[in-house]
Structures are given as C-alpha cells and as structure tokens.
TrEMBL record:
Cellular-component GO terms for this entry: membrane
Superkingdom: Bacteria
Domain Cytochrome oxidase subunit II copper A binding: 58-147
Record protein name field: Quinol oxidase
Record InterPro entries: CcO_II-like_C (IPR002429), Cupredoxin (IPR008972)
Origin organism lineage: Bacteria, Pseudomonadati, Pseudomonadota, Alphaproteobacteria, Rhodospirillales
GO molecular function, one term: copper ion binding
Length: 147
C-alpha cells in the first residue's frame, strides 16, 4: 500500500468516526442565547433582589451570577427540570464560562444570557475557560440541582 492510499484510508476512517460521534449527540440542554449591555447598578439590583452571596435557591426563570477573579457568585440551587435564563456578568476582566457543553465569553460590562434546563438531579458544572490569572484553575462555580 502506498502512502497516498494510506492517507486516504485514514481520512475516510476519521470522517466515519466524526459522523458517528455527531449522530450520537443528543443535543444540549444548555444553549447560549443573547447578550446585552448593562449598567452595573441595574444588574446589581437584580442580583441583590435574587440574593448575591452564599447559596441561593432560585425558582425557574431569570437567574443572575457574577464572575470575578477567581469565583462565580452566588452558588445556585436549581429545581429539577426547571427552565432557566442564566445572566452572567464579569466584574473585572475577561472570563469564559464553560457550562456543560456550552461556552460563552464574558467581557466586563456585557451580560451574556445562557438558557438551560436543569437536569433531574446532580450538578451543572460551570468553570472559567479563559485564563484570568493565577487562581484561574480553581475558578469553578456551584450550580446544584435539588428537589
């Protein structure tokens, strides 16, 4: 077998594997949706009304979270199967929120809205995916699903 034929077989096998992987995906319950500019006081008022620190249990609907070196705040408790619009705002530098299979870039002053449906139980992982300083690797938020 010559090298050209071997390369063609490797390419064909890769395409078949990719097609199988894509066909096996069921879709994500986490979808990036929109972005909007916000005045800090407006977002801050919404966050304060919801609860801005500690662990906050939120009903389905709009929920607010901030990103800052090196944390996502507040820790959230979601209802199983609830539909949420997660509003995310970076307070200091550029961060990127990796939530399940989705990832959104968080720029200071711009709110990103991510639609998600809470799973029946467990945890929805949120982690910073944009290097933001020495504590970056420990920047993991808490989103728990509780009945």
């Amino acid at each position: 077998m010559n090298s050209r034929m071997a390369a063609t077989l490797v390419l064909l096998a890769s395409l078949i594997l990719l097609a199988g992987w894509l066909a096996g995906r069921t879709g994500s319950d986490i979808l990036p949706s929109t972005a909007y500019r916000v005045e800090g006081s407006d977002f801050g008022a919404r966050l304060a009304a919801q609860g801005a620190s500690g662990v906050v249990r939120v009903p389905p609907g709009d929920v607010y979270m901030t990103a800052r070196r090196w944390e996502f705040s507040p820790a959230l408790e979601l209802a199983p199967g609830g539909a949420y619009r997660l509003h995310l705002l970076s307070e200091d530098v550029v961060h990127s929120a990796a939530i399940g299979d989705a990832e959104v870039l968080l720029e200071p002053g711009t709110v990103r809205v991510v639609s998600l449906t809470a799973p029946p139980s467990g945890r929805v992982r949120i982690q910073c995916a944009e290097y933001c300083g020495l504590g970056h690797t420990k920047m993991i938020g808490s989103i728990e699903v509780v009945p």
